[in-house]
Write a structure and sequence with these properties.
Blueprint lengths: L1 E4 L6 E6 L2 E6 L2 E6 L11 H16 L3 H13 L2 E2 L5 E2 L3 H15 L16 E10 L7 E9 L6 E10 L12 E7 L4 E4 L7 E9 L9 E5 L6
Antiparallel strand pairs: 1-2, 2-3, 3-4, 5-6, 7-8, 8-11, 9-10, 9-12, 12-13
Helix pairs in contact: 1-3, 2-3
């Protein structure tokens, strides 16, 4: 229960009610709501944590030669740092990164004790995202590859939205995994989206070993009911 001074106007209140805490901070009336964490069991967080734990434990069982091979792989594959430069992973980080991706998109048996012996088979070099042609709520994706895609690999798709405009504002942190298709497929459809809203879509080529190509982006409104 909150204690209210001058209750008819409620100019000053103390205490909590309905999850809101009323107080005075440095002479200013304030109200606060405690943040509520996401319900983890309804998100991908538990599985991601399980994969990280599994891959880290698995790495400890590798031979010295295998760990050296992963260290050499990491040295030869610098990662972008977000500022136009690159940085180097450790062998352990490279092992976990690639195998986490492989397990997440396939299954637990996809873990590889040895680093990939060949470069990624293909990369997406152009992605076209457009209003769907078939059903209301559809967005169509068409892409081209540099290299030859393999049916053993994946094209991973993620989506952000719905938004009321096409502006790309605070989009990057809102992308969520939606689906994959085999690496030799060059088109797909995202269905069941909210009509008259905008969606940002990104896609990348992912090898069965967890190697990834850069994301390619596009945005569109889904097909509407007519």
């Amino acid at each position: 229960m909150a204690k209210v001074l001058n209750p008819l106007l409620s100019t000053d209140a103390r205490g909590s009610i309905g999850g809101i805490t009323y107080s005075i901070n440095r002479g200013i009336n304030t109200c606060k709501v405690k943040p509520r964490p996401a319900r983890r069991f309804r998100t991908t967080q538990p599985r991601n944590r399980a994969i990280l734990s599994f891959t880290s434990t698995y790495y400890q069982e590798l031979t010295s030669a295998q760990r050296t091979a992963w260290q050499e792989f990491a040295q030869d594959h610098p990662e972008p740092d977000g500022f136009g430069g690159t940085f180097l992973l450790t062998g352990h980080q490279a092992f976990v990164k690639l195998n986490h991706t492989a397990i997440r998109l396939a299954d637990w048996g996809s873990i590889g004790a040895d680093p990939p012996g060949s470069p990624i088979a293909a990369t997406i070099d152009a992605l076209t995202v457009s209003t769907g042609l078939t059903l209301p709520g559809d967005i169509d994706l068409v892409w081209t590859n540099q290299g030859t895609g393999s049916a053993d690999d994946f094209v991973e798709q993620q989506i952000a939205g719905p938004f009321t405009s096409a502006a790309k504002q605070s989009v990057e942190s809102r992308f969520k995994f939606v689906q994959t298709v085999a690496g030799n497929i060059l088109l797909d459809t995202l269905a069941g989206l909210t009509e008259l809203h905008w969606y940002w879509v990104r896609a990348r080529y992912v090898s069965a070993a967890g190697q990834t190509s850069p994301w390619q982006y596009g945005h569109a409104q889904p097909k509407v009911t007519v």
